[in-house]
Amino acid sequence: MITIERLKKSFDDTPVLKSIDLQVNKGEVVCLVGASGSGKTTLLRCLNLLETPDEGRIKIGDKEVSFGEKPISKKDIKDIRKYSGMVFQGFHLFPHMTLLENITQAPLTAKQQEKDVIMKEAEVLLEKVGLSEHQDKYPDALSGGQQQRAAIARALMMHPEVMLFDEPTSALDPQLVREVLKVIESLAKDGQTMVIVTHEMHFARRIADKAFFMDDGYIVEEGPADQVLANPKEDRTREFLALLEDE
Ligand SMILES: Nc1ncnc2c1ncn2[C@@H]1O[C@H](COP(=O)(O)OP(=O)(O)OP(=O)(O)O)[C@@H](O)[C@H]1O
Ligand SMILES: [Mg+2]
């Protein structure tokens, strides 16, 4: 589903992704862990071209783009973005739209389906994330956990082949974390391919097939999630996990 090869990205001459190789198969749940500043968000943003990599190659679905040889086109960006839906730490709902409007805005604009099909699907998804009774409220009137579940529903409305989550629960109070993790876990059960940046290690071990540990712009360890997150081979991974346990 996703193949990344020798991906590099610098900001102002400071290399952030130094040479990333990574593969995600269809239906896999992959988690990405690593210290603050190691490049996790940058990697996710490169995956849907919110950042343009300097070098390397990304293949996602049937679309393949190489970087560094010639500038990427608007069509490349559009084609790549079609495959993924992103959920951010800070929800990013539109404040002036109700939940229902938030989640139907993109599909209604894209006009890929009839309006009544889109509205029906919105109803089903809001039910799935437990927000049916809140569909006419504005984001301001909802808890962080509810807003994040709405953000997940909004991304799902576009039928992405891959869902990308960047620390989806780190802005939430502890009692709200579980309801969001439950929704993500149900997507995993449905076979949704996902890449999740998270510090929720118990959750990651339970739902992820594979884990990648990033350090200083490289992936320094990868393997089955329960091995990488419970019995890592690399010292750097071990040190990072020990720090998390101390928190
Ligand atoms: N737009 C940008 N301009 C300049 N530097 C940036 C930009 N985005 C990220 N960086 C730098 O790149 C490095 C990696 O940032 P990134 O956000 O990818 O790390 P992260 O692993 O997601 O960290 P965290 O766990 O804190 O979210 C950091 O040093 C950051 O300051
Ligand atoms: Mg980040």
UniProtKB/TrEMBL annotation:
The keyword Translocase does not apply. CDD domains: ABC_HisP_GlnQ. Keywords: ATP-binding, Cell membrane, Membrane, Nucleotide-binding, Transport. InterPro entries: AAA+_ATPase, ABC_ATPase_HisP-typ, ABC_transporter-like_ATP-bd, ABC_transporter-like_CS, MetN_ABC_transporter-like, P-loop_NTPase. It is found in: Cell membrane. Signal peptide: none annotated. GO terms for cellular component: plasma membrane. One of its GO terms (molecular function) is ABC-type amino acid transporter activity. It is a peripheral membrane protein. Its main location: membrane. Residues 2-241 form the ABC transporter domain. This is Cystine transport system ATP-binding protein. It comes from Alkalibacterium olivapovliticus.
